[in-house]
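Prompt: For my understanding, could you write out one protein's sequence and backbone structure tokens?
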Amino acid sequence: MTTRRAKISIIGAGNVGATCAHWAAAKELGDIVLLDIPERVGVAQGKALDLACCGPIERFDARVTGTSDYKDIAGSDVVVITAGMPRKPGMSRDDLIQTNVKIVKDVSEKVREFAPDSIVIVVSNPLDAMVYTAWKVTGFPTHRVVGQAGALDVARYRTFIATELGVSVEDVSALLLGGHGDDMVPLPRLTSVSGIPITDLLSEEKIKACVERAKVGGGEIVKLMGTSAYYAPASGTIQMVEAIVKDKKRIIPSAAYCEDEFGVATGQRGKGYFVGVPALLGAKGVERIVAFKLNQDEQKLMDESVSHVKDLVGAVRKLFPELA
């Protein structure tokens, strides 16, 4: 009896995309296609070949293909979209949205054509706007389109908590909601170390410092090395991929489509938004949103975060009326 390996296609062979391929191969999650534009196909092919040659050493069996031909993503179980331009000095938010919507729109059209049964994970920024774009363009049901941000934000938060306490990161459990970065909603009351509430272990001031550092974690890395982070964003993405291809039913903070959940768009059927929430990820993609009651302060922060997501989507709709 033979079992078909999962197929994971990664669009964009830059730092994040290539590192996604690295983590996916190391975890032996399936066969990998690394795709980039024709002008950069040599980069995709070179990185794929280099990674494939790690197989005998790291002991993974997987085909790793570099390409610029979207026909090669046919039959993908999961497509990861990392393509896009980073924000450059002097660029406004609308400039970045205009540039990256065009890129993600083009990619999504190809995904719709060549991998119509796939589950799409969007990593491109600004994340909340790009997930919306991929959903509108592919026409996929909402459970098959999701964005990566929360997995990264929570990982940073857990790292800083563990460092502050001098404990293993494995023993820190945490949750964040809302948008990526400055828009995230911290939930210290749901943060614990081996079941011990973090509020019993750290002062309010130190907890807040860990939260604030997580919010600006990406910016801290840019200042240090002059480019955006890629190890942790890729790791968070592949955590989501693994949950899907292995049908693990893991609850991972993800930018998932919400309506009534957390008051995102209560009573407005078909007019929801992709917002960072605890999502149960399995073989069908986002199999459900794990909703729970927020206290008054948390709900206020969540409402503010959602309003920023709505502003981003509003900018997309204004610049690209066909996506309204």
